[in-house]
Amino acid sequence: TTLHVDYWTADSTLFRVFLISPDADADGNNEETFHNVTLATGSWQSLEIPLSTYSGTVNLSDIIQMKFDGNGTVYLDNIYFSSASTTPTAPSTSAPTPTATGVISLYSDAYTDISTVNLNPGWGQATVFSEETIDGGNVIKLSGLDYQGIEMDPSYTVSQDVSGKTTLHV
Known about the structure:
three-stranded antiparallel beta sheet; 170 residues; single chain; elongated; mainly beta
């Protein structure tokens, strides 16, 4: 039911994934149709293309070729057909338990969070914020994410000195 393709690009603004079947109407040309991909750049992306996208033009029981076209450099991996989407829509296990010491925690089951943190300030965002439990661990779910902020202290009277720290872990 799906064609899976993982891709990464830094510069392509056009990317199409074609399926091709043999000539069905004796015009001398193989039958082909494409799926136009809306690209994201700078990170690996997973596509789950419904094969129904291609039906009607190509014969899905007689695919002989695939074709990719675009206008930049595109890296591909994990190209396969499957009978169902293999991309989960939510995690089934909780995040790994961190083991760092001397942390300033904003949200974690492993550490004591600072008492003044506001994880969901009302900054006019459309994001739907919720807290859920997955595999015994508490998580923040951001649905329809456009942007989301965290305030260290909503009254702005307590700031956090992170100048002695070297990393931010998310």
